[in-house]
Design goal:
The N and C termini lie far apart (38 Å). The protein is of the alpha/beta class. It contains twelve helices and ten strands. Strands 2, 3, 4, 5, 6, 7, 8 and 9 form an eight-stranded mixed sheet that branches. It has a two-stranded antiparallel ribbon with strand order 1-10.
Length: 269
């Protein structure tokens, strides 16, 4: 699976390469793009967050939830980015409040790009979350963190092969040393601005009966909730008996979630 990279006329000019990272801390006025930061616990996600935003966070609770959120900002290439640190979670199947918050934000908050931080030394365990994120959104980047620890354990990860297999950019990093952070910033910017278009690999080997059921249910969802993002994913969750999504559909809340304001200060106020 390949990614498409488009290049505009100014990419080769010096100004394009001089827009290095500026850590904004919590000073995020007039931001241009939203970056969601996802990952399993203990992958160094908070270290990545701090490296990009300047070691400062604005913390509080998600609206109506007891789950703590953190957000910060950075500037790069003439644009300002708001970074939203999602709860650390192993899955997006909504078996816990943390998973529900992370999933709802990626689906309904519609971030411009979602960065998934994974532990390079425990890659197989982390890929479950990556694949679930790629089922929801096309705009994603994998931060292959803790590469120093993987090397210490004698592990070698082929990030180029992984990027081809996933269909999204993969950036090797050791965030606690600051390694890989300039490249991660550039790739996040490229995906958020549309310079890089991801083509995520998705598993679509359902039996014919399931494929037909998904198609019928997807059409019904699009009729009832015309602007719902990724109605196919919602249909799959319904067929799998996801009680949270079932409740949102039966109560009409799915439409309310989909009308969540695009701008983050309204979403998270």
């Amino acid at each position: 699976m390949e990614m498409q990279t488009t290049v505009d006329g100014c990419e080769t000019c010096p100004a394009h390469h001089s827009g290095n990272l500026t850590k904004l801390g919590v000073n995020m006025a007039n931001w241009d793009f939203v970056v969601a930061l996802a990952g399993n616990p203990n992958t160094g996600k908070s270290t990545v967050f701090n490296a990009l935003t300047g070691l400062r966070q604005h913390t509080g609770n998600w609206p109506g939830k007891t789950v703590v959120r953190a957000e910060g900002g950075f500037a790069y290439g003439g644009h300002r980015y708001k970074l939203v640190d999602l709860p650390g979670t192993y899955s997006l199947l909504s078996t816990s409040l943390d998973e529900e918050v992370a999933r709802d934000f990626i689906l309904f908050g519609r971030p411009d790009v979602t960065a998934v931080v994974v532990d390079a030394a425990r890659l197989e365990r982390n890929l479950n979350l990556v694949l679930q994120v790629l089922e929801i959104t096309d705009r994603a980047v994998v931060c292959l963190n803790l590469m120093d620890e993987a090397k210490r354990q004698g592990l070698c990860v082929d990030e180029r092969r992984l990027a081809r297999d996933l269909g999204v950019p993969v950036v090797p990093a050791a965030a606690r040393r600051g390694e890989g952070m300039p490249e991660l910033t550039r790739v996040l910017s490229d995906v958020a601005t549309g310079r890089t278009v991801c083509r995520p690999q998705r598993i679509q080997n359902e039996p014919p009966e399931l494929r037909k059921a998904v198609g019928r249910l997807t059409a019904q969802l699009e009729e009832a909730f015309p602007n719902v993002p990724n109605s196919r994913w919602v249909a799959l969750r319904l067929l799998e008996g996801d009680t949270r999504i079932m409740e949102a559909v039966s109560s009409g809340e799915l439409g309310d979630l989909n009308r969540t304001p695009r701008r983050e200060e309204e979403v998270l106020a």
